[in-house]
Amino acid sequence: MDGLDLTNLRTLSRAISQVENRTGDYQELVQNAYAKGNWATVVGITGPPGAGKSTLVDALAALWGNEGSGIAVLAIDPSSPFSGGAVLGDRIRMDRSEHLPNVYFRSLSARGHIGGLNEATCDIIALLGGFGFERILLETVGAGQSDIEVAGMADCTVVVAVPGLGDSVQALKAGIMEIGDVYAVNKSDLAGADTTRQQLEGMIGVAYASQGDSSPQGSPRSLTPGVEALIRRHGDAGVEPLAWRPPILAVSADKDQGTTELGAVIDDFIDWCRQSGRLRRKQTLRVRDQLQRLITQRVLQLYCHDDGDSGDAVPTVLASWVEAIISGNANPGEAVEAILAEVGTTQPLRSPR
Ligand SMILES: Nc1nc2c(ncn2[C@@H]2O[C@H](COP(=O)(O)OP(=O)(O)O)[C@@H](O)[C@H]2O)c(=O)[nH]1
Ligand SMILES: [Mg+2]
Fold first, then answer.
1. Which of 69, 78, 195, 259 is the most buried (most CB within 10 A)?
2. Highest-confidence range of 240-249, 294-303, 315-324, by mean pLDDT?
3. Could you give the CA distance from residue 63 to residue 60 in angstroms, rounded to a whole number?
4. Is 50 close to ligand 1, i.e. is its CB under 6 Å away?
5. Ligand closest in space to the Cα of 160
6. According to the model, what pLDDT value does residue 91 have?
7. For residues 144 and 53, what is the distance between their CA atoms, to the nearest angstrom?
8. Ligand 1: does its nearest atom lie under 6 Å from the Cβ of 187?
9. From CA 314, how far away is CA 312, in angstroms rounded?
10. Which part of the chain has CATH 3.40.50.300?
11. CATH second-level architecture of 9-212+224-293?
């Protein structure tokens, strides 16, 4: 693995901007980055706004940064689709980690384009790996679907919950059982932390209990799709003694309590993933998802380009099919087949050399 190249931070910052904005010779930068095949470990930190994600990222960056490895922090900046500006202007200072020479901080704008964000984020992850960073801490906005997608890029996803937000765990519930590898109850110095932890224990108990059901020999167990997904991610506690059950840690990020333990648990999870072949699988899925997005985007761009949803369209293939469908002269399946038949070959595609 290449060593961390921090002699040229301005080059790195410029490269990230070019890749983020798809400007300049970004394609060459991206090509070079992928050619190195150097993948940093990505730790996603997600949870509602104000939960202390940035504070926790600072603590973890300090923890690992002080061990000497190269840490890049990527913060997804929630920008308003209306104003185009940042919503949370009050970015906190990374007091504990920002002075370390091997910790690099960068915010990326979310811009409301989830697809665009993901596509660039994958390339930026490759770029940072190429620069020799060993870990990337990815802080998400805390606003639902986009978080779940961003967390999908992480090798380990930490879901941050906090006490005192009433039914915050309920609010977190939608979707988080699918993404949490580790749960942190932050602000454990405040009242109610125990209740929050118990609520999380309850959810995990329900989600992971059915895994352990042993069924009579030979008869297939019926599993819900949700549990099947958990088993793919974390193993089947009923069969595999080393299956992962997401731990719940009480931490106080701003007081640095429990953060060392949290860092160790994240490392344990990454090790477990590596040993069980799941780390490789995650990389595979990440790249596969990226390819799917890129292909979709490119096909749309090339053949179905239109001017958004304003309605008064430049006549495009897409617009004319939309018109035909609305007026009852075609259906969506037919349109897709017709467009794809014209895109190019109907022969099986070539694999890479
Ligand atoms: N009491 C308490 N406050 C904390 C703790 N961690 C962070 N905070 C505070 O919570 C607020 C939000 O933190 P921030 O890291 O910006 O949250 P984010 O929006 O999730 O990134 C800040 O004022 C932090 O100082 C903690 O462990 N205990
Ligand atoms: Mg933050």
1. 259
2. 240-249
3. 5
4. yes
5. 1
6. 59
7. 15
8. yes
9. 7
10. 9-212+224-293
11. 3-Layer(aba) Sandwich (3.40)
